[in-house]
Design goal:
With 548 residues, the chain is α/β, with parallel strands linked by helices. It contains 16 helices and 17 strands. Strands 8-7-3-2-1-10-9 form a seven-stranded parallel β-sheet. It has a five-stranded antiparallel β-sheet with strand order 11-12-13-17-15. Strand 2, helix 3 (84-96) and strand 3 (100-105) form a beta-alpha-beta unit.
Length: 548
């Protein structure tokens, strides 16, 4: 079994990593916003849960134009969240509890409040300061048109004009200007950032928008030719590696350079790419040992609750990871998507945004059935070889808060799309720790997003020690997983019924997941853990078991 508590350089290959969204985890000072001291005070929750590491979403100085992913200073802590000393105390406590610490790195763009960007605005066209970002003259008789038809992932043009007439590129919000990664000064500064946090005990990095750093900025800049397509939708219209700004082959030079920094530490620092790319083969490139080592598996997250589809994704993912020399990754929820307790219950083809705009009523989601399916999905995921990434609150069975009133929305997607896309606030609502209180134990004050009354029954206090609760299911499964997980392969059985996933792991322990609508015969063997009750001799619908 892998040694996850020592200096084993491969600890991450089979780890369970818990994502903390700092502003929504725990609030120590009562201002309604989660902070580092709040995280430190609640780390025993993670150690008792049985995870191996926490991944910390951005905690850097930010005006929150994009939930912290607009970074004003890469080597400091937002004063609303704490100080560098608070960060050090959090890392020390995590390590004392046997937890690794992974931090988010946002290298594609900075905040417009970053000192470099402010310098660029003051310096003017043609300056060395502007060369760190992507500034261009506009088109049209007076430069009044954007340089290209490139679209922001959040909607609208990806170009913003400044007072002197030039335009700068922002693939996300206008408050997030893109760096020019062809500039050596940019590359050197990020090497410094990697060392800054590694020297403070950080064990690894999650790389935001890892596929977007390298861009074809040769003149004349190329139009996409389909401005209605934003982001990853346009990738399929280009030969692999040739899109003007997504998943270009040159991006891998950057990560090979980073690997030299990672490997200068003992143990080497790990990294995982957020790379939205069209195939497992393209994703595997980011996960090569000489680059980041691991990449998120969004194909698994996006797969429907369908046995044939999931089996194909699992096989494809394991094959791609093996070819890259990496381990596979699995994830069901994160800070950017509808929580899977709700999402897995939406009928195939349902538009998530339309559902959110309806307040979660069209179609209505059966919350009990959603939780049953989510529990089954969890046991299936945790049985797979590789690393599992768990998003805060899923161990409580939290559903998406789909009915947030529009006047409380914080996600910039809402305004930037002209109030057409509701955004990601519903999965970022602060966690409930207690049954009562102004924010269910999140903090002494309120919470920066309103929590529904139903959170009381999902609180940690309500579930801890309660037989059959989702929290206790996670605790039991993660404890058992540490004993069982070995090797990075599985063998499918040849006797699974339609709608059933059935595979064998190391030493013959077995996972059987019934994704169908009817009960099926339960295979022989000792039931080690089950996601829910089943009739005698049968495995019920939307239920997963592990068998000895």
């Amino acid at each position: 079994m892998p040694d996850l508590s020592s200096k084993d350089p491969n600890w991450w290959r089979q780890a369970v990593i818990y994502q903390v969204y700092p502003r929504s985890f725990a609030d120590a000072d009562g201002d309604g916003l989660g902070d580092l001291r709040g995280i430190t005070e609640r780390l025993t929750h993670l150690s008792s849960l049985g995870v191996d590491a926490l991944w910390l979403s951005p905690f850097y100085p930010s005006e929150l134009a994009d939930g912290g992913y607009d970074v004003a200073d890469y080597r400091d802590v937002d004063p609303r969240l704490g100080t560098l000393d608070d960060f050090g105390a959090m890392v020390a406590e995590a390590h004392r509890l046997g937890l690794k610490v992974i931090v988010d790195l946002v290298p594609n763009h900075s905040s417009h409040r970053h000192a470099w960007f402010q310098e660029a605005l003051a310096a003017g066209p043609g300056s060395a300061a502007r060369a760190r970002y992507v500034f261009r003259d506009g088109r049209g008789a007076h430069g009044e048109l954007p340089p290209t038809d490139w679209q922001s992932v959040f909607g609208g043009s990806a170009w913003q004009r400044v007072a002197d007439g030039q335009w700068y590129l922002h693939l996300f919000t206008p408050e997030q200007p893109d760096f020019d990664w062809g500039n050596e000064e940019v590359r050197a500064d990020f090497r410094t950032t990697l060392r800054f946090w590694s020297d403070r005990g950080v064990d690894g990095f999650r790389v935001d928008v890892a596929h977007a750093l390298a861009k074809d900025l040769s003149e004349p800049l190329r139009d996409l030719g389909a401005p209605e397509l934003s982001g990853e939708e346009a990738l399929t219209r280009f030969a692999p590696g040739t899109h003007p700004f997504f998943d270009r082959d040159e991006v891998h030079e950057i990560y090979r350079d980073w690997r030299e920094v990672f490997d200068s530490y003992r143990p080497p620092r790990m990294a995982v790419a957020e790379a939205w790319v069209p195939s497992a083969e393209r994703r595997a490139r980011y996960a090569r040992p000489e680059e980041l080592g691991q990449a998120f598996n969004f194909a698994y997250l996006l797969a429907g609750w369908d046995a044939a589809e999931l089996r194909a994704v699992i096989d494809d993912s394991l094959t791609g990871a093996r070819a890259a020399g990496a381990s596979a990754t699995w994830v069901l929820s994160n800070h950017d998507v509808v929580r899977h307790t709700s999402r897995l219950m939406l009928p195939p083809g349902t538009d998530d945004n339309a559902w959110l705009l309806s307040g979660g009523h069209a179609p209505a989601v059966d919350t009990a059935a959603g939780l049953r399916r989510a529990r089954a999905a969890t046991l299936l995921m945790l049985a797979l070889p590789g690393s599992s990434y768990v998003y805060q609150g899923e161990e409580l069975g939290l559903a998406e808060v789909a009915d947030l009133p529009v006047e409380v929305l914080q996600d910039p997607i809402w305004e930037q799309t002209g109030r057409v896309r509701k955004g990601r606030d519903g999965c970022r609502v602060p966690l409930p720790w207690t049954r009562t209180g102004p924010s269910y134990g999140f903090g002494a004050g309120g919470a920066w997003l309103p929590q529904p009354e139903s959170f009381a029954e999902y609180a940690v206090e309500a579930q801890a020690g309660a037989e059959g609760s989702t929290l206790e299911l996670y605790r039991a499964a993660l404890k058992l997983r540490r004993k069982l997980i070995e090797g990075e392969a599985l063998t499918w059985t040849d006797r699974a019924a339609d709608g059933v996933l059935d595979f064998v792991r190391h030493d013959g322990w077995r996972c059987v997941a019934n994704l169908s609508a009817t009960a099926v015969p339960l295979p022989a063997g000792e039931v080690l853990i089950a996601s829910g009750p089943s009739p005698d001799g049968l495995l019920g619908p939307d239920t997963t078991v592990w068998l000895a």
